[in-house]
Amino acid sequence: MNTQKQFQILADLHTHTVASTHAYSTVQEMAAAAAQTGVKLLGITDHGPGSPDSPHLWHFHNYKILPEEISGVKMLYGVEANITDEFGTLDMDAHELSFCQWVIASYHTACVTFPRTPELVSQGYRMLCEHPLVDVIGHPTTDMFPFDYEPVLRRIKESGKLVELNESSLQWKKGALQNAKTVYAICKKYGIPIVVSTDAHYAGLVGKTPLAEQLLRELDFPRNLIYSLDPAHIIEIAEERHGKRQKP
Ligand SMILES: [Zn+2]
Ligand SMILES: [Zn+2]
Fold this sequence. Notes:
single chain, alpha/beta, TIM Barrel, eight-stranded mixed beta sheet, 8 strands, binds zinc ion
């Protein structure tokens, strides 16, 4: 077996388009890049309205017009919603999220004002686990949002949500690589499923996860816990949680 390709992701479920103004490619360009890198299922997840660079809510409302497949790549149209406080509150309500087929929930420093203590961040994640429409806890590895890893990750597993391993964070966020070694070792220990995502803000980065792959190899992380290797399973999860998509 080619170990270099052991963790090549087939579902890249966290990407941004020009609709988030600090990203630089269109839906079409992202899908074409996904096809080139061998990604079979692409998540388009621009920022929720709490981010300074987010699209208008109509961006999400109008997803119905986009094709289910572009350049041979199956598409999931969703959002990276912002967790806005220590109570796990999102910046989109259930009606707004109903237009999305995939919901990542992430903390970002620009979108919160509470003191980011491990106690309050942990509480926020725990309360978020009660949210019926959230699929993934986004990039839980930066120094900016410390939390009590073991109990919170176990709670995420119980709730049926997935933990994200985010390539962009590993590359750019302070402390992320070191924190990730702890977070994903705990995921391995307790059998907590993860998704590996690029968080690509440019088409050239879609489907490329060298730092995540290296980390997973170092941890000898079990393949059956990496749901990004199984697009059909992701589609099942998405349809179970969000229903079948309205046809274009
Ligand atoms: Zn993010
Ligand atoms: Zn993102």
